[in-house]
Amino acid sequence: TWKWVVGPMFLYLCERLVRFWRSQQKVVITKVVIHPFKTIELQMMKKGFKMEVGQYIFVKCPAVSRLEWHPFTLTSAPEEDYFSIHVRIVGDWTEGLFNACGCDKQEFQEAWKLPKIAVDGPFGTASEDVFSYETVMLVGAGIGVTPFASVLKSVWYKYCHDATNLKLKKIYFYWLCRDTHAFEWFADLLQSLEAQMQERNNADFLSYNIYLTGWDETQATHFVVHHEEEKDVITGLKQKTLYGRPNWENEFKTIAERHPGSRIGVFLCGPEGLADTLNKQSISNSEADPRGVHFIFNKENF
User: Fold this and answer.
1) Considering the chain, what is the average pLDDT of its residues?
2) Start-end ranges of CATH 2.40.30.10 in the chain?
């Protein structure tokens, strides 16, 4: 028995030593941004830190707990000179981090008062493969939109500088939320990306569909009077917010018809139930012919 136990225990101890060594490296919080709906953004810098889109890190705040490590998806792009995470306040640890950063106070917080942070990572996820496809479907549910914030930021930077070598030609972005509050901290990025694509006469590059799943058409009746306005009254985007849940079968069939003979990457960050639905649709809408359309499903669950 000891022969089978020693190997895994040795690997576990090595992993703990590496994490301890990484936790001793200095991390500087450069900015704390308070977003609506009890969400904070931490912008940080660390010597030698290199990331790819969609990756995640483990974070420890000794001022809150000396032992707890929590995973967070990076919401910054590799082109930025800092890395950032968005933290939604939903429990004791996140509440403690919120208070430790002085977000519960009205006055301006001095930088030296910010807590020490330990970071382990970054670690890879399926979202790193986004730029390996010409066409992708990005599906985020609630706070699960965070890896795609990193992807869309990176796309924005690439278009600002040089997009000629970008293999990715078309993005279908779906964001499912139960209420309107979660839109507020992410709508600015979509507005910037929307404006950038229009300036470069490539408005068709990004097709996004935002769904309020906690509402239906009857609850949204009072917004109908604003439907003819140029911008959506909820998000401020040209694309109007949809209500209810998407018909995934129709969405997959429509995309398959538009891109015959393509390999289409389907990326999800969301609950297991939605992952099962998208996986089944990816299989049923992929053709048996190798030259036909194929949907490649990738997921991150929470």
Assistant:
1) 80
2) 25-123
